[in-house]
Amino acid sequence: MAPDEGEKEGFLRRRMARPIVELLRQGVTPEKMALSLALGVALGVFPVLGTTTALCAVVALILRLNLPAIQIVNYFVYPLQIALLVPFFRAGERLFGAPHLPLSVRQIAAMVHASFWGATRFLWTTVWHAVVAWCLIAPVFLVLAYVVLLPLLGRVARKSRRDGATG
């Protein structure tokens, strides 16, 4: 394994896996943790920049989920949010039969940097269409992620309880 891979694995383990295991040890149920993590990813890729932290916080408070867990995941999926902006824009265009807006992530970032409000006005319809596309895709992702995460987190919780009882 190259040094970069070991350092990356160490970073992810230290910054993401350990806090999740620690929360499970403290009594957060695998069900709540799986929902927190799945929602953190689903909400973290919401195609409106600058909204996901507040979205995750509101949802965590309403559903009484673990706020640190949902925000940790939200933080880690930020690059994915950026990467999925244009695909969500394209999905929205197809869904609504809207004209193709030839923009790259770099161009969008430059527009936002130059004038946040100008970019908002220019992209309003495109973003609204992307949000509708996200609303159709996110629930499917959420269910799949929850179904995958729940048994994994159940095993981690059982193992951490066993290790805690013997250690």
Shape: elongated
Number of strands: 0
Q: Helical region count? A: 7
What is the beta-strand fraction? under 5%
Q: Helix- and strand-based class?
A: mainly alpha
How far the N terminus sits from the C terminus, by CA atoms, comes to 30 Å
What's the Cα radius of gyration?
19 Å
Unreliable parts? none
Q: Specify the helix fraction band.
A: over 70%
Pattern of helices and strands = HHHHHHH
How many domains? The number is: 1
Q: How many strands, what sense, and barrel or not for the largest sheet?
A: none
Plain-language structure description:
With 167 residues, this protein is an all-alpha fold. The chain has one domain (3-166). 84% of the residues lie in helices and 0% in strands. It has seven helices and no strands. The protein is elongated and about 55 Å long.
Describe this structure in a few short sentences:
This protein has 167 residues and is mainly α. The protein has 7 helices and no strands. The protein is elongated and about 55 Å long.
